[in-house]
Amino acid sequence: MKKITSIILLLFVTCINAQVEFKIKNVKVNGISIPDNSPIEFNGASSVVVNFKVEFTKPSEMYIGSIKHVIGTYNSYGQFKQLIQPEDLFLAAVTNSGFSGIWEKTLYASDYTYDENGNYLVAIVTQTSGNGLVWETNHVPIKRGPLFSLNYNSIQIECGNTTSRTFTVSNSGTNMGTKSYNWNIGTGWTGIVNSNMFNYINTTKR
């Protein structure tokens, strides 16, 4: 009898979870939209401002009851950093099909450990009555992003000076593959950028 009861409860919980959609969407980093499933990247900055929407959807006839909702981030050590005070909500049947909200939060690079995986943004809902069910959104990865350094960020060259200059790009992170970049020859100049100034580089790990 105990085994049958356990199976019925498991099927009941699975059925409820299958009917609920809970996700983070419409993510922007410093005002720029990023594609779904793309990471939030610092790219050498000490902080970034992240905008996103959290959406919890259930069938209107489904009763969940009292819940606690929290948003935060995990680093690769499994340490949770809370970004909002937990919210207490009540999801009744018939009159309620879930909740959503738009958030803006500042993330600081120093709060994260930069392994390949393990840092992510997440929202969590815990049922505080009934079966104590827990729902998590998709995990939005948080990464350091590409890190490069130049021996010249910019250089002034007098008109008529034809001496060549070498700009060296150093891979100061662990970025592999081909990275593109653009040249800006400044205002007041005309003509074509030298064909030797290639617009790509191949990089390897340090």
Explain the overall architecture.
The chain has one helix at 2-19, and strands spanning 21-29, 32-33, 40-41, 47-57, 65-74, 80-82, 87-91, 98-108, 120-127, 134-136, 140-143, 148-150, 169-171, 177-180, 200-203. It has 206 residues and is mostly beta strands. The protein folds into two domains: 2-143, Immunoglobulin-like, CATH 2.60.40.3880; 146-206, no CATH class. The strands form four sheets. Strands 3, 5, 6, 7, 9, 10 and 11 form a seven-stranded mixed beta sheet that branches. Strands 2-1-4-8 form a four-stranded antiparallel beta sheet. The longest helix has 18 residues, at 2-19. The protein is elongated, with a radius of gyration of 25 Å. Residues 4-15 have low confidence and may be disordered.
